[in-house]
Amino acid sequence: MTKYVNNFLIDLGRIEKFEVVSVNETVTVKDLTFKNMHTYWKSVTTGELYLPFNDPDINLNSDYDRYRTEKNYFQLKILLTLEKNINYPCVVLLKF
């Protein structure tokens, strides 16, 4: 089932209908290359792809989550939870 969202598109100066599409793209993060599913909003009028306006970092975060998993690093959510629970910056802990 195709999902659609409506949002203001500054290029057209009006509310536009977008189709939510997923594209399997090849990504390189540091020394690791892999395929990852990216989400875009496709303008019904122009056909142009846009990063989702409600979360423009969704693909970037997905890529780094995948990188962390492949390298067996802690996930960002785990680090932030740990940091919150111990009330100490994880950046300091990771230097050791």
3D architecture notes:
It is a single chain. The protein is an alpha+beta fold. 30% of the residues lie in helices and 38% in strands. The protein has three helices and four strands. It has a four-stranded antiparallel β-sheet with strand order 1-2-3-4, covered by helices on one side. β2 (14-29) and β3 form a beta hairpin.
Query: How large is the share of residues in beta strands?
Result: 35-45%
Radius of gyration: 18 Å
The averaged pLDDT comes out at 89
Percent of residues in helices: 25-40%
Instruction: Compute the number of strand runs.
Output: 4
Order of helices and strands: EEEEHHH
Largest sheet: 4 strands, antiparallel
Q: Walk across the major sheet and give the strand order.
A: 1-2-3-4
Looking at the structure, what is the overall shape?
Answer: elongated
SS summary, helix count: 3
What class, by secondary structure content? alpha+beta
Uncertain segments = none
How widely separated are the two ends? 49 Å
Give the arrangement of secondary structure elements:
Layout: E1 4-9, E2 14-29, E3 32-43, E4 49-50, H1 58-70, H2 76-86, H3 90-94
Antiparallel strand pairs: 1-2, 2-3, 3-4
Tag the structure with descriptive keywords:
96 residues, alpha+beta, four-stranded antiparallel β-sheet, 4 strands
